Amino acid sequence: MEIAPNVHHIPCVFANSFLIVEPDGLTLIDCGLVCTANKILKYITAQGHASRDLKHILITHADGDHVGALAALQRATGARTYASAFEAECIRAGKTPRPLKPQGWQKILFALILPITARIFAARPARVDEILTDGQMLPMLGGLRALATIGHTPGHFSFFAPASGILFVGDSLVSEGARLRGSRGMNTWDQAKADAAVRAQAALAPPIVCAGHGAVVRDAAKKFRIAE
Q1: Is the pLDDT of residue 126 over 70?
Q2: What H or E segment, with its residue span, contains residue 115?
Q3: Which residue in 66, 75, 73, 77 sits closest to 123, CA to CA?
Q4: Domain coverage including residue 201
Q5: Do the domain assignments include residue 227?
Q6: Rounded mean pLDDT of the chain?
Q7: What pLDDT does 111 receive?
Q8: Exposed e or buried b for every residue in 89-120, given b needs 16+ CB within 10 A?
Q9: Is the predicted pLDDT of residue 93 greater than 90, yes or no?
Q10: Burial of 167: CB neighbours in 10 Å, binned 0-12, 13-18, 19+
Q11: What domain count does the chain have?
Q12: What is the rounded average pLDDT of the residues 109-128?
């Protein structure tokens, strides 16, 4: 589904994946669970492109619902992959970027569902071709700025396109109806840093925010929920 000129939200992929379509090739931002590689490839071909037209894969962080399909997509497309130094180490090892921190009743539930979630959210080791740095400009969408937005994980990155006003935030923000809140709870590595990432992204006043979970948020500059 095209959400803005040259930008698509790929449906039925957990977590959200976004496709940038340009004449010199396609760029994918995050790639869902291990089982979603075929869904992404089918969406690409349904738009009239070949799998080899996917040239770049940008990763916000190394959780299995964002990198699970990466190895399969690399084999099918040959696309170059970009991630921060910390998340790249995790991707190459196929490991989670931080332990979860369940509290109270969450510990009981987590112990019960761990065997299932471990399989669903697993990520096979994959390569990373380029290490992202904070403030780095990538050529997509007339200039796509890589932003360190650590907190949810130690090496989390977001991507901002000033020309189109679109901010891709991974899990540094969650879309909840018409509001945007920062990462919190047992899957947040550092809450203070996560809150600081929300404030930094709110300062960009982006018109459109594309989060890893939830709907695309428009008129987004007014919808940030800032922690005090």
Answers
A1: yes
A2: helix 105-120
A3: 66
A4: 2-222
A5: no
A6: 93
A7: 60
A8: bbbeebebbbeeebeeeeeeeeeeeeeeeeee
A9: yes
A10: buried
A11: 1
A12: 73
